[in-house]
Amino acid sequence: MTRDGVREELSRGLLGLGYAELTPVQRSVVDLMAAETPTGHGPALVDDRSGWERLADRVAQVGGSWTFLGAFALAMAAWVGTNLLLARWAFDPYPFIFLNLVLSTLAAVQAPVILMSQNRQAARDRQAAEHDYRVNLRAELEIMRLHDRLQLSEAQLQRIEAALAALGPATPGSHADEASRT
Predict the structure, then answer these.
(1) Could you tell me the sign of the dihedral formed by the alpha carbons of 139, 144, 147, 149, in that order?
(2) How many Cα neighbours within 13 Å face the side chain of 75?
(3) In terms of C-beta density within 10 A (0-12 exposed, 13-18 middle, 19 or more buried), how is residue 147 classed?
(4) pTM higher than the cut 0.85
């Protein structure tokens, strides 16, 4: 049978649709089944990020950690404490205007970087989910195919048993009788 015939038979037998009627994902799964090849690796194994993207991911990783939060709290306390204790020589007196500028700038830069990182992670998650869907669909179709083969084998076994029962018990002088005597 040709490869196209195998694809058509698989798609009709397992999904109840012709190969041309299947979605692209379903077609790819039927193609893998027809070729009897593995599904392949998920997209998470390939790191195709640019240097800037890796930097953004690193900033998001550090900025979203308890270590950063603790260090930031200590830096804030040191800034405020130093300026309150040295009020006469303070480089940023009480209303802490320069501190507000630094915090606003940090937030303005850090937020878009974290969002870029989250967008890339969401895209990777979508790719991984699509890969998982393909693997799960293929597994389900393979199980259905094995179930059909098992039912066919069971039906053949029942026909053989019925044919043997129709032959009746072994008669004297038959091969089964001779085998039991030796």
Answers:
(1) negative
(2) 9
(3) exposed
(4) no
